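Worked example 4.2. Below are the chains of a multi-component assembly; read each line carefully before continuing.
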Amino acid sequence: MGTHLPATEFDGTAVDDQREADAEAVMGEPPAQMVQLLGPDGKLGFDPVYTGYAEKLTPEKLQGLYADMAAIRRFDVEATALQRQGQLALWVPLTGQEAAQIGSGGASQPQDYIFPTYREHGVALTRNVDLAELLRQFRGVSNGGWNPKDTNFHLYTLVLAAQTLHAVGYAMGIQRDQKLAASSAAASQAAGTESEAAKPNAAVIAYFGDGASSEGDVHESMVFASSYNAPVVFFCQNNHWAISVPTNVQTRVPLSNRAKGYGFPGIRVDGNDVIAVHAVTEWALEHARQGKGPVLIEAFTYRVGAHTTADDPTKYRESAEEDAWRAKDPLARLEKYLRSEGLADEAFFAKVKADGDELAAYVRRTTHDLETPDIRSAFANTYVEAHPLVAEELAWFEAYSAGFAGEEPAEERHAVTAQASQKAGH
Amino acid sequence: MTTMTIAKAINEGLRAALTDNPKSLLMGEDIGALGGVYRVTDGLIREFGSDRVVDTPLAESGIIGTAIGLALRGYTPVCEIQFDGFVFPGFNQITTQLAKMHARSNGNLTVPVVIRIPYGGGIGSVEHHSESPEALFAHTAGLRIITPSNPHDAYWMIQQAVECQDPVIVFEPKRRYWLKGDVDVESPGRADDPFKAHVLRVGTDATIVAYGPLVPVALAAANAAEEDGRSVEVIDLRSISPLDFDTVTASVEKTGRLIVAHEAPTFGGIGGEIAARISERAFHSLEAPVIRVGGFHMPYPVAKVEEDYLPDIDRILEALDRALSY
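Applying the procedure described above to all two chains together yields the following structure tokens:
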């Protein structure tokens, strides 16, 4: 397989190719180079920079990447089914983007902090977030669901791109922590006392999509990251569709090219190639942790399913396009590679399938049990410190609720009254 | 006791906060070498360095958004928004992210960000430099909003905002930045709670509630009324959210008449909220409707006519006459 394939040779959608080529011609720039190591045919190529990172992936790690991609795809199917059964209000499917998410999240280290958008279920899996907890938001029992401090995986953010600024601010905090630790260590040394063991350097990943790339907050976050050389990796999953609007409405140049304007590296990677995504992200995180500043990664991938379970892609795109991308399936190509290289046997794939079914059963079971909170917890969590208005409204609510002690709910009461009125001839 | 201006008091308050809390930092446009367009942060970058007094790129959403990230990492950022009318590019980050983070994380995350906003008119400035947008933020749960009217309060309230674990917006009355007064830097005294209103002048015939830049105007109106034999109580609200209804209610139960004055337009404003709450809490004490004195329902007018827009002593006295005519 070739390396740094031009996007135009790779992209299965002829119309997109042409638009992008036109745009590049306008800009007088060559087509964006795309890092690809594992092609759709399951053969491993070479890249002068990233092959070195790919070679660090042991057979066990490669099996793990496959198992995680398979698990999250199975989870996606299950969550979609739960939505169809009315158990979830909404689901945001990720199918097609498994490699982009498992590869990038899998390259992060525990001390790194991740700011997802709202489709990063695969990244959540790599950070050991309980997938049942992840469903709380979609079942309507929490606006968060998990404690980000447990896994360094932040809450989903639904206001597009708002989290990219939080990521940069967090990275600015990491920079200050390092300086405080250094001055504290120097003080300890001067005083002859023992200093705290140095913590490993950390970096931040900010996820967003091709649609969100148009938001002003992405621009501002890249300006701030660049100005302060913040240890942050911007990870853009270009899945080609912002609900119904194609990427070419958001940009006339490859999104990775935008990094140039901010003065840091931008890399387009085959987002369906988990090995390349892992390698590129590992490089970018190292770059950031070493104090060399931000990196933008554009993972070139495709949202095979709908935007959400409320969406209908048949209204705005051709099934031929979806078929073209299915041919580049991230799981199929890694499976081909693992089998052809003898890195995984039939028993491995059978176990992956069985584990997936077990995960699905766990998710089904726990979703039904997800506890509906008491609205009193909303009163309690609006402010950290005591607040007289909240206290007053809670007291009113308690008194009001107490007035209904032993009574049936209002809807039933009114229904009975209406029936009685009818009987009385009103 | 030390005499200083409100601007200097905030400067000293910030210096004390930066000294007391090594995780606190200031961020904003031109707050470093220049010391801010109003010089409120003057000299602080020399003392604390550019990691703790941060000149940011010119982007308000960026300032608030990165402040949220810093807070998530354990820092306490104090953001300066250069002028009231320029907060709106950051409005999304304040209302959809900052205000809600504690609630949506089920109490797991705290974001103790402070946002300083010079506000209000009367300085003869250009468009977007004289507005009073406090009601837009007061309507958002999760935020606390305070506004000092004198140097002593300014010195302590900025420090109390930094100590508070909730997000706090400090609206600073920009036309009073040069107002001088005594500051007790040893003790806040009765200013120990930034969310409590203060009765500044005791009276029996009517109550005037004001905050920020209109507090001196309300006091002057009360003094003028006294010459006509009217005894007027004046309350400095100090905090807009939460709002100290107990202090206002107690006053109205005594005086029976209430006038609320603010520069912001009256429609949908803080005065309306006070009128509604007081009519519930002190209905039988009221001798007259609660009367609001404030801006008109129009964009803040051009500088040459702002005197006709801003509530002044006569506008408050006219409202007082109406209240007393019932």
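Take a moment to check your reading of the output against the notes. The radius of gyration of chain B is 19 Å. Chain B has two domains: 2-191, 198-324.
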